[in-house]
Write a structure and sequence with these properties.
By secondary structure, the protein is mainly alpha-helical. The chain has two domains: 7-283, Fic-like fold, CATH 1.10.3290.10; 286-371, Arc Repressor Mutant, subunit A. It contains 15 helices and five strands.
Length: 374
Amino acid sequence: MLEFKAGKYIQKDMYKSFLPNHINRDFVFIDPKINLLLEEASKYLGELNAYSFLVPDIDFFVRMHFVKEANTSSRIEGTKTNVGDVILPEKEVAPEKRSDWEEVNNYINAMAFAVEELRNMPLSLRLLKDVHKILLSGVRGEHKNPGEVRRSQNWIGGSNLNDAIFIPPHIDDLPELLSDWEKFWHNNGLNIPILIKIAIAHYQFETIHPFLDGNGRIGRLCIILQLIDKKILKYPVLYLSEFFEKNKNSYYDSLTNVRSKDNIEQWIKFFLNGVINVAKDSRKVFESITYLRQEYNDKILTLGRKAKMAQNLLLYLFSHPTVDAKTIQDKLGVTYNTANKLLKDLEGLEILQETTGFSRNRFFVLYKYLNLFK
């Protein structure tokens, strides 16, 4: 796009910060490869959306997509958890992993809140501020104004403003920039395909960096909210954090390249490639879920009178794939002895796998299913 200018550095106070140009305008692109990538990305998103309708009880599976995205997006920011850690009850988490576990679970709660609220209110800065408040509640960023647009200067890279790699806009410019960002998203008069609009909005949000902490996670979460908001997807089942983490250096370089060289087309191609890759992988996960669910049901039917109870437990396990006897007792309303026998039955059918190696206080995991999200 020959006429695109990302913005400029301006002197305010004792440093220069980057002031991005407004984006609430039409964009015309000259690279024909963007059209081909857009066509391919739209195709795979359509297939993924169709698969999400074919999977029975899809809501049970959505939480594990939340878990995977929360863990991956948080890992980009430096947390050390894996999916197996995240699904453990808090009391089972090792002390050295507790703070990371709390951050990732905050993100799960923030995502669930955002997707639910999107049914009742438009995608807006107001919603993102509410999500941000949940994200930082009680964790390492709790002293960085959760739920509030920053009132002081932040920076990216380096130890302070003097050696920072990038200094986002000055606080005086944030109200106008964020208003422009919202208007751009809701401006239906612009002749811009939705996926390209999402790519531009993500670049601009990360450039504005409106919060003192959590901008990367909020910005990446916003992508799935935008896909749902524009009815590209019905369910939150595609997250680009996995692609961004695998290509972390390229992700940051692509965003930087827009600011330093005005090369927004390169960023859009990177973004669309991410959509294609992740949509393909997500579709394969749904295919695997379908086959695995049938495998589980076939095995459970061999339990005779216990089959109905085991099927009810299996539904619960699709959203909470770790379980102990006490949880089963509470969820199914059975005796502790019955719960233990059911665990033994499902372990014998190789549906559940015991993880502690203990004879008491044992935990079991729906291991084949969990492995689909690792």
